Amino acid sequence: MKLRDSENVFVLGGxxxxxxxxxxxxxxxxxxxxxxxxxxxxxxxxxxxxxxxNLPQFDNNPQAEERxxxxxxxxxxxxxxxxxxxxxxxxxxxxxxxxxxxxxVEITAGFTPSGKxxxxxxTRHRETPGLGSNVCERKFTKTIFNIFKPLPPGLPPNRVLxxxxxxxxxxxxxxxxxxDGGEFDFITGATITSRAVLEAVEQAGKTLALRKNEFIKGxxx
Length: 221
Prior knowledge:
By secondary structure, this protein is an alpha+beta fold. The protein is built from three helices and five strands, in the order H-E-E-E-E-E-H-H. A five-stranded antiparallel β-sheet has the order 1-2-3-4-5. Strand 2 (76-84) and strand 3 (87-100) form a beta hairpin. It is elongated and about 80 Å long. It starts with a helix and ends in a 5-residue tail after the last helix.
């Protein structure tokens, strides 16, 4: 005996419902089985990238505690607390200046709890290769004298970015490149990029100064 159309719809609907239920259960099981390994891989990746900022040893996942703000100049800024045994030992701050030659220039800077810069990386930019990119990129230079030698350990140098190491962003006033009467190096032909990096680092430091107590109050000592 053939099923009527209404019965066909009922049977098909029941089959689809059972299939969806089984699929949901399988996905939930896979999620539970893979959650911890995925979290461990994410933490390892975060720790690896933040170690480039010359931060001390830490055991938390800073990304899980990150908070987003606007800097005093209105730039997007993200503060990541770096903890060891529940106590803040450093901060990483991301900040993007919209004033690069080709758009946003985003930096990530490491800071001690007192606000001194440990290192600066440019993490996103679209500046001109060979000009603005020289302000943003860190790389070891190969010459005929070291071409066969292994790369040295540590962060590759960049004379513009390394100028920030050990400094604290002043609460008042603004940093300037030497061309504008300030103290910071710039690269000829890439002054706009140099200004944008300087601006982003300064706003990162000022944002941290305004917001760090919100994280320190949460120290789990």
